[in-house]
Amino acid sequence: MAATTEGTEDHTAAPASRRRPARRRGTGRIAAAVSVFGELLITAGLVLGLFVVYSLWWTNVIADRAADKQADKVRDIWAHQDEDSGRPAVYDAKNGIGFLHVPAMSSSEILVEKGTTSKILNDGVAGYYTDPVKATLPTADKKGNFSLAAHRDGHGAKFHNIHKLEKGDPIVFETKDKWYVYKVYAVLPETSKYNVKVLSGVPKESGKTKAGHYITLTTCTPVYTSRYRYVVWGELERVEKVDEERTPPVELRG
Amino acid sequence: MYGWIWRHLPGNAWVKALLSLLLVMAVVYVLFNYVFPWAEPLLPFNDVTVDNQ
């Protein structure tokens, strides 16, 4: 038995090694082309995989770092303004105008800056609209719509959990001197990205017909794509003055 | 392609492995810092605003 198996092994091994160089000469070019093509496909797959890692992880790292830095700067400016005389707070658009606290959506504060270009939003902040419909800032003390946008995924993903917001949930906007407490009253889970009416001073789609102090959060939906927009509306319930300890309003405690 | 690169790297297997690792890291660096930030706005994954365009 042993002898015969050895014999057959020898028999098959010898011609195979003799045949190999011949085959390489004949189909060498095609084989090389196919293997390069295959390697390119593998490379493309790896690059796409890396792009997912980049979008969902790395942009968050970068954005959170940028947002933390800018938030520290705003807090620092606020603290120093208190020291210098009784000068009123200056809202420098470049630095951010305040912080958004939405306990139902995220446990951390979201810095709010001017503008909704990707350059601004990619720093892991929420931006208020300047175009196509200009937002009315709550600090302006007039009726209007405080419209904001932020990323759903990547770049800090500040509005990732926007779908967890329900009617009655608080949205608190913090400035240097005041807490603006809004309550969610309407949600539009899916709308066209061209629907700029949601930003109007009186957002009719939310059911309001009279001017008031509104807040509008917009982001993309469904998650990981931006086919539609998700919109949440809130209305100002009350304004609290910030005390010396910056005690947060009841909605943010607990 | 990868075989060709491997054959053209200098040194023994360990040196080649180290050089390959450095090459991979350089490629990932370039992708994360230049290629992906450039490609991202061109892809429809992360537009969050409503607008007229």
From TrEMBL, chain A:
Keyword Magnesium: no
Pfam families per the UniProt record, alphabetical: Sortase
Transmembrane segments: 30-57
Swiss-Prot/TrEMBL keywords: Hydrolase, Membrane, Transmembrane, Transmembrane helix
Xref: SUPFAM superfamilies: Sortase
Keyword Protein transport: no
Region feature Disordered, mapped onto this chain: 1-24
Name of the protein in its database record: Class E sortase
